[in-house]
Write a structure and sequence with these properties.
This is DUF1343 domain-containing protein. Residues 266-419 form the Peptidoglycan beta-N-acetylmuramidase NamZ C-terminal domain. Residues 1-28 form the signal peptide. The protein is of the alpha/beta class. The protein has two domains: 42-232, Rossmann fold, CATH 3.40.50; 260-382, Alpha-Beta Complex (Aspartate Aminotransferase, domain 1). Helix content is 33%, strand content 14%. It contains 13 helices and ten strands. The protein has helices at residues 2-28, 42-53, 72-81, 129-133, 153-162, 211-222, 260-269, 302-308, 346-360, 375-380, 384-390, 395-400, 403-413, and strands spanning 58-63, 85-91, 108-111, 116-120, 138-142, 170-174, 228-232, 289-292, 313-320, 332-339. It has a seven-stranded mixed beta sheet. A hairpin with a 4-residue loop joins strand 3 (108-111) and strand 4. The longest helix is centred in the first third of the chain and has 27 residues, at 2-28. The protein is globular. It starts with a helix and ends in a 6-residue tail after the last helix. Mean pLDDT is 92; it is low at 6-29.
Amino acid sequence: MRFKERNKKILTLLIFFLTISSGSCVEASSRSHISKSKIIPAEVSFYEQVLPSLSGKSVVLVTNPSGIGRHPEKILKEFKDKKVKIKHLIGLEHGFLGLEEDFSKSPVTMDETFQLPIYHIYKVKNSEIPAILKGADAVVFDVVDMGMRCYTYVSVLKRLMDNLPDPNTKFILLDHPNPALYLGARGEGIQKKFLNFAGEFPSLFFTGMTLGEAAAFYNGEYLGGKVKLDIISPENLKRGFDWEREGIPWSTPSPNLPTLDSAKNYLGLVLLEGVNVSVGRGTQAPFVYFGAPWMNEPEDIIPELNEDSKGDYYYQSVFFKPTFGPFKGEICRGLRLTVVNRKYDPIRMAYNLTAIMKKKYKDFKWRQYADGSHNIDFLWGTERFRESVDAGKTYEEFKASYAESESSTNRQIQKYLIY
């Protein structure tokens, strides 16, 4: 009898804890439906207020499916209805549809949807850009950015602002939140010898700004305010926003960032592009999987990596075979990164991950160009990341070496912050 009563009590307690756990899970759910979002995208104001004001004008359009470019039929209809002429298009790194893996081989191609020339800025000399923009009453710029100097959309922004031939041309920018905004300005600035298309904007590795704020910063600090900048902000956006709790939909800005998870991982794993591994390009999980054919028994480093993560993220072993990029068609062993704390420190993660991989694997190498220079130096902006790892410095020692620059930059950009 006592045995039955004891079992009954155990069963009652079990049901109680399951009920509490279930309720907690519901409460803890961090993902809101898009219909619950209070943030109104900038494109609403653009179509309702800004576009009608451009009636009778001609514009150069810079967008892709992360902006108004996801609905080209609407662009064609609304611009025609409002009597706004699209002079031509500006191509970003992954093309107008955001599908291209490789850079266009030609500086100008014909877009099939709009039947207009599309100029690929990364293939065009800076001296040629004024002629492309000549005669435009406005430039309309609308893409989702990653808030990072190495993400090339901010380089396109800079080049267009630098080369506006007419001071009366409006530069209309539809602003968006980005996944790195919570970090502030982080990392180092870029040394002149490492300037490149993926490292051209005068900011730290993480800009600490939206594209709109970055445009205002660049206009104010480097161009003397000469650009007639019109930033259209999303309504109700606040700097401390949580992407999923706010119900903000993720709009893919480039082929290898299809989900918010891959975008969050990209913040740190992009630095592995400076190492001889695949970061999952050409797989079903870009910037989630990473590894190489030489990365044997990755399980051996998982305990150390997971302990180092402080509960912010974790790793699991994985096999994958890229269809393009490094190790195309080869079976790779490696790791899968899952971020738990969406406000983790991606620089710390990348630095410690790289250091542990270098310590474990004799085949680890810094990726080099034909002239012997190192890819990671162009990504980070200086030699310090690579040299600190090679010297066996801790992350804390590495971070302390540029902490003063971070502080001064965050003070400098403060007056340009909108949210």
